[in-house]
Structures are given as structure tokens and as C-alpha cells.
Amino acid sequence: MGKKSVVLAYSGGLDTSIMIPWLKENYDVDVIAMCANLGQADELDGLEEKALNTGASKVFIEDLREEFITDYIYPTLKAGAIYEGKYLLGTSFGRPLIAKRMVDIAIQEGAYAVAHGATGKGNDQVRFELTFMALAPHLEIIAPWKDDKWNLHSREDCIAYAEERNIPIVQSKKRIYSEDRNIWHISHEGGDLEDPALSPKEDVFTLSNTLEKAPDEAEEISLTFKEGEPIALNGKKLDPVALLEACNDYGSKHGIGQCDLIENRLVGMKSRGVYETPGGEILYEAHQYLEQLVLDRETLKIKHQLAIDYATCVYDGKWFSLLRESLDGFVDRTQKDVSGEVKLKLYKGNCVPAGVTADKSLYLDDLASFSDTELYNQQDATGFIRLLGLPMKVKGMVDRDN
Fold first, then answer.
1. pLDDT, tens digit, for every residue of 317-372?
2. Which domains does the chain have, with CATH numbers?
3. Catalytic residue from among 5, 57, 92, 178
């Protein structure tokens, strides 16, 4: 009977690179490395060879970019979900997809456990483990950073461990940021960013121009949506991957989507993250502008309120929960009429609305003008205001008499 096997979420970064030999040394298992291609570009170069040379028995590199966009990014975009008003959830909704594919492979390969490299102080441990629990409660979960056998207590310790075993790593003692990249964003944490009194250094930004380097002239683009999902850029229909990549190019060029956030982690601490979401910022701005034209006041109000709950649900790792799926039911109904074209002017970090049209626009020119129309008799406002203000008038009378 052969060794038991474990499926490890493998990125080729510092933590997961050292976990292949660590798992073999401490658990006497075969390690199956699974890397999800979510659009991290050249980070995938040489990854299979590196994993095998480090001791992996098998390597799966899964191209999940389109599934990531259509099944995770688009639902969150349509919900308008933004965590704490700024974070577009780039890492948050990437982890459940990775964990879901890990479960598929673990079942396929007969593995008894899954493992991840998230620390015990962050959010990702929750996102991975809640997904495992929801989709495959029979699998054991190994989280080395929380394991009694783990004696590496800092990134410096991890670098030393890697150097002792001749494991090549990207990070160095000079650039020690913890970064997560996919087709939607890149996050930067750690190092000098841990001091919120310090401004991010220019070299932190790896996807996009700083505002100083962005062009001095604005550029106009147009996005076409169908039922809340983008389908064309500048009048040209594109598949989801190509469209997002093109939006990323525009956003990166103009320094759009940069976010420096002191966020509240689920585990109870504050942390500082610097995010670049160039194409995502453009899509959110365009989508929200289009919704203003087609959704009525009450629906838009409730949708904005539920967007906070949706964002928290995603941030907290509850992607595969009844709550999120139920919220999707509401969101999907609101998106049936969110079809049209939005123009945006891009300039030094700004997405400025430059015109919007919709197939089912609720904006009527004659109704919105100052002229009288058959739909609106200005004299009707007199009685309306009297009834609307009656409770306030009664309260005012009581206060005056007393």
C-alpha cells in the first residue's frame, strides 16, 4: 500500500514552496501540488518543474480564468459588493475557486487531506477551510502555519528554510511583501507597508502607473453590458478574459484602481493592504453608472444595502453558503434590465462618466425637464408634500405648545 497523499494549494511563492518538503518531512505523505491559473501571468513560468524538483509527486496547473470571471467576479460585480467601501475583493473570491478545484482533485486522486499555506493571522485560512468544509467535509485539513510541528515564525525564517534546501524563491530580504495576483488584481502586504504612517513606495505598484507617470491626457472608452455583465469594449465584442485584460491595460495606463486600505480582518485585527485593481475599478464604475439609469429608487436603495452584506459574506469566506446564493437570486432579478452602453473618461486615477444609454432607461427627457407634461402636474405636489410632512408638522406643533 502506497503512501497517503495530500493536495496542496501551490502558488510557487515562499510559503507553499517550502511546504512541499515540510509536509513530506513531517507527515510522510505524497504531495500533489495544485496551482490555479487565475491570471497571474509570468508567475506560472516554470512552476511545474519547480514543484516536481521540490518533491511534489504530481502537479496540476488548472486554467480557471474564465470560470473565475464568469462565476465569481461577475456575480460580485453585479451585486456591487465592495468591502469597507474600497476593497474589490480580488483575493477573497479567488480562494473559494482554488479550494473547490482542490477538492475535485483530492476526490479524483483519492487523497485523504488538503493543505494550504495561509497563516493563522489572516483571512485566507478561513476562505480555504470553509470551502473545504462545505464541499468535502470528509477531508482532513492541514494548515502548517497553525500546526504544532511548524517552527517557522516569520518570513525571514521561511526564507532561511528555503535557502537551506536550495528552493528557489521570488521574495528577497529587500522586497519582502506578501503579494497575491490574479487577472482581477494584485495585493501587497507586509514589509514597510505594515507602518500605516508611511506612504507606499513607488516600486510597490507592479501593475499600474503611479499618478505622476500616468498620461497627461484623458482617454475615453465605452463598455457594453447585457443583463449586468460586460460583453463589449469600444463596440467590439470580447470573451470575458480578453475584455478584462483590455480593461486592465486601460486602467493600468491611467493609474486607476489603486487602493490603500486599513481594513478590518475577519480574525479581529486591523491590517494595511495596498491593492491594484485597474480593470475592476473601470467595470464597477461603468456598471454602477448604468444601474442609476435603469433601477428604481427603492430597488437601488435595497441593493446598496445588501451589497454590504454580500461583500462581507465574500470577504468572510462564505462563498458556498445559502446566504450568498440567496442574495444572488435578488441580484440576478435586478440585472435583467441592466443592458446598455457606458462611456467613461480615464484620467490620472479617475473614471469620469461621459454618457450612458440603456435599452430600458427609466430616464424620460420630458419628465425630467422643467416643462409641464401629461405625466406630471406640478399642482399635485402640494397635496403630496402636505401628507408627506404631516407627521413632522404634528411633531412641530406639539413641541411648540410645550
1. 999 999 999 999 999 999 999 999 999 999 999 999 999 999 999 998 877 776 77
2. 5-176 (3.40.50.620), 180-358 (3.90.1260.10)
3. 178
Q: Tens of pLDDT along 8-65?
A: 999 888 889 999 999 999 999 999 999 999 998 777 888 999 999 999 999 999 999 9
| Residue 124 is among the residues annotated as catalytic for this protein | yes
15 part of the active site: yes
Is 178 catalytic? The answer is yes
| Residue reference for cell 464568469 | 70
The catalytic position among 17, 57, 101, 124 is 124
Whether residue 95 lies in the annotated active site = yes
The one catalytic residue in 5, 65, 95, 324 is: 95
| Catalytic position from the list 5, 11, 15, 155 | 15
How far apart are the C-alpha atoms of 124 and 63, rounded to whole Å? 21
Separation of CA 259 from chain center: 13
Half-sphere exposure at residue 40, Cβ-oriented, CA atoms within 13 angstroms? 24
